Amino acid sequence: MDAIFVHGVIPPIVTPVDADERVDERSLRRMVDHVIAGGVHGILSLGSTGEFFGLDFEQQRRAVGITLDQAAGRVPVYAGIGAVSTRECVRAAAMAASEGAQAVTMLPPMFLSPTDEELYRHFRAVADSTGLPVLLYNNPDRMKVNISAALMERLADVPNIVGAKDSSGDLVLTAEYIRRTRGKGFRIMAGRDIMILGTLVYGGVGCVAATANVVPSLVVEIYEKFKAGDLAGALEAQYQLAPLRLAFNLGSFPVVIKDALNLLGLEVGDPIRPNTPCTETNRAKLKDILAGMGALNG
To answer: Is 227 a catalytic residue?
Structure first.
């Protein structure tokens, strides 16, 4: 399957919500324009930063539909799948296709800790159910299950499983994904924002980076300078980005990204409960970080 469009910087876009925790259409459309203006190469709707877990199925559909409508073909739109059962993942993939998404990303089932064989059958069943390209998403810290290098190598042979995002933070694992699947057209992307350049150097094709919601042009700079052969420039941009990614512990995930966007005046609303905004003390720290990066004046 042709997946040449899977590359570059893809923000897992936040999902702005109103006081009733329903998708705020106006704010979401503004966010789509914000990241596209920053030069991103795609948008992921319903990623973990998009708080898919706090939206019912119809609100998930609405988020994907609005994102696609506002993107209007300017960049590819990926729809995230984070359901637990294979049945619900198949349903989510069908929804993404019906809304017109260009691809789906897919987490392992949370809570269950399935075996490699169970994971293979799960991913294979969902991939077989859709004509869309599938990008796997390894996030063992949150899912409590790791997609092994051997399993990734096996999954790379499924025709429409075209790549993976690795948020493990383990560059050895990322490198093994790339080494074992090289020559198969399989596309590995960084999921840990401080490891974008390292992943590119090893042979990755880009990143799915939460920080690209806030400073899309800086994240794009890492990618574009690397592609242009300016390794020193790419490294400097990676260094500039690090403080924002390391600030994620100022609040419950993914609160810091929404708070940062609100500080920038993008008005994306509060996080979905039970999460709450950062404390005033931590918000002040976040504001200082943004100012130090040049993203915020004052």
So the answer is: no
